[in-house]
Amino acid sequence: MWRSRVQLIFVHLLDFYEGKNMLTYQDPAILQQNPLGPIEGLTLNYVNTTDIEISPGRSFIAAGALRLPAVLSVAQTRSLNQTWTQGGPGGRASGVSLTANTTYHVFLLRRDSDGAISFVLDTSVAAANRPAGWSSRFIGSVITDGSNNIRPFVQQGPFFYWQTIFDDLNSSNYTTSSANLQSLTVPAGFAVDAMLSVSISRSGSPFTSVSLGSPNANNSNSYVIRAVGQSFEVVLETQVRIRTNTNRQIRAFSSFTSTSVVIANQGFIFPGGMI
């Protein structure tokens, strides 16, 4: 029976998600029309200070004009301490150094010649340092601390939670005459939603406020956190979610002197459709 291109696309997608071998479908007209779609599985798991594990899963990868399937049947572990080799434990892209307080983006790899699957960690948001002859798709990011160790995390879909919450800002006198760009411990290179716990306090006054917002938006779109209390002290704690810029920054502003501000980092969220 004759079937339209659209019908064939849905048949191929169904076969893919049922685990059938889509490598047998080589009609370029069909492969160009397959959407990349969501990632199924391929979750990043913290193993130790140098290693991450990628759980089984599947997705499509853009290979030029084609959209090709990539299926991982067995979990793989990759080491940030070692340079990538096919079939080996190394995960860091060739030519990329291991440095402190650095973002390493994790990419699913599919070899163009035979469909073999691997993973690489790269400082480039476009996997510019991936091995030649492989296509890639972004699946997440890890960040090193001041000792070159991977910060412990837990991934749940697009949500990345720090295993230990820490302060990105702890100031006893946070006063700015204009909006200040405050750096956060989130991935560099992408705008993400930072999940923050914010505490503000001020002695000797019944009122204080701090404005937090995205550098990508105007000041009117900021969170304005106001605290009102007794005449001798005011304290407020709250949770907010703020979109960063690609340099890991949010905008913060407080016009009141002697205001204490603590910004605790709970984790970050990749925008919809990225992973």
Notes on the protein architecture:
Helix content is about 5%, strand content about 50%. The protein has about 280 residues and is mainly beta. It has 2 domains: about 5-150, no CATH class; about 165-270, Jelly Rolls (Sandwich). A 5-stranded antiparallel beta sheet has the order 11-12-19-14-17, with no helix packed on it. Strands 2-3-6-7 form a 4-stranded mixed beta sheet, with no helix packed on it. A 4-stranded antiparallel beta sheet has the order 13-18-15-16, with no helix packed on it. A hairpin with a 5-residue loop joins strand 8 (about 105-110) and strand 9 (about 115-120). The longest helix is centred in the N-terminal third of the chain and has 13 residues, at about 5-15. The chain is elongated and about 70 Å long.
- How far apart are the first and last residues' alpha carbons, in Å? 37 Å
Shape designation: elongated
Widest β-sheet, arrangement of strands: 11-12-19-14-17
Low-confidence stretches: 1-26
Secondary-structure-derived class: mainly beta
> Major β-sheet, in short?
5 strands, antiparallel
Strand content: over 45%
List the helices and strands and how they pair.
Blueprint: H1 5-17, H2 28-31, E1 40-41, E2 44-46, E3 51-54, E4 57-63, E5 66-72, E6 76-83, E7 90-92, E8 103-111, E9 117-122, E10 134-143, E11 153-156, E12 159-171, E13 180-183, E14 193-203, E15 207-213, E16 223-228, E17 233-243, E18 249-253, E19 259-269
Parallel strand pairs: 6-7
Antiparallel strand pairs: 1-4, 2-3, 3-6, 4-5, 8-9, 8-10, 11-12, 12-19, 13-18, 14-17, 14-19, 15-16, 15-18
